[in-house]
Amino acid sequence: MPSAVLSARSDAGGGLLLVALDVDAERARAYTAPGQYVEVRTASAHGFFVLASQIGETPWELLVKNAGDAADALVSLPFGSTIEVKGPMGKGFAVARIVDRPVVVAVVGSALAVARPVLATRIAEGVAENTFLFLGLRAPTDLPIADEVAAWSDQGVNVVLCLSRAELEHHPEVLPKAKRAMGYVQVAVARAVEAGVLPPGALAVVAGPDAMLADMRALSRTAPIEVVTNV
């Protein structure tokens, strides 16, 4: 299996770490779409991680929760360690050049990795204000990569924190420009569609638990939005 070199690691917040893996330029160019992922293998375990870095660039970045298996290696090995990494895999989301269409990014937890390259592209193309990020969290203080999410909001992305705990008014200092909604991401998106907040014809890029994906696909059959997932 091809390898990569563990080059950096930092606390991303929300119980996640941002891990950097150095790969050569040829492999970096094989990363062509948001939502592509890699397989990390160790002697005793393996795991799959969505690429969180910018398209075609090195190092590859992963949002990792220390939940055992291959994640243990990513969060504990010393810098300079060689790790077996296969990929990129999957087709990802073909949304890079959709400028004239509203885009909804609906993600939960470490699936926020998908949002980074999508939103970077939307902001660069000048369509941030026609872009909506619905981010599922337990509470505001669980927000990962908070500085980056705040920067997206400052640049015009419509950010909605979907909180599964009854804490809409707690910690108002966390992303003060964002809207807050109670409940799961799919519920918040359905409410926004019903209220006319999301324009008809929007494309929803969705990543998260299987139940969320199923609910979002069901929503697309009754609401005027198109839902795409990478699985």
Summarize this, please?
By secondary structure, the protein is of the alpha/beta class. It folds into 2 domains: 3-89, Elongation Factor Tu (Ef-tu), domain 3, CATH 2.40.30.10; 103-229, Rossmann fold (3-Layer(aba) Sandwich), CATH 3.40.50. The chain contains 6 helices and 12 strands.
SSE arrangement:
Layout: E1 3-13, E2 16-22, H1 25-29, E3 37-41, E4 46-50, E5 60-65, H2 70-76, E6 82-89, E7 103-108, H3 112-124, E8 131-137, H4 146-154, E9 158-163, E10 179-182, H5 185-195, E11 202-207, H6 210-220, E12 225-229
Parallel strand pairs: 7-8, 7-11, 8-9, 9-10, 11-12
Antiparallel strand pairs: 1-2, 1-6, 2-5, 3-4, 3-6
Helix pairs in contact: 5-6
List its traits:
231 residues; alpha/beta; Elongation Factor Tu (Ef-tu), domain 3; Rossmann fold; 2 domains; six-stranded antiparallel β-sheet; six-stranded parallel β-sheet; 12 strands; 24% helix
**Assembly level:** single chain
Strand numbers in spatial order across the main sheet: 4-3-6-1-2-5
Q: In DSSP terms, counting alpha (H) and pi (I) runs of 4 or more, how many helices?
A: 6
Please write the CATH class name of the largest domain: Alpha Beta
Largest sheet: 6 strands, antiparallel
Q: Can you tell me the CATH superfamily of the largest domain?
A: Nucleotide-binding domain of ferredoxin-NADP reductase (FNR) module
Order of helices and strands: EEHEEEHEEHEHEEHEHE
Number of beta-strand segments: 12
What percentage of amino acids are in beta strands?
A: 25-35%
Task: List the uncertain runs.
Answer: none
| Global morphology | globular
What is the overall pLDDT average? 91
Helical content stands at: 10-25%
Task: Return the CATH topology of the largest domain.
Answer: Rossmann fold
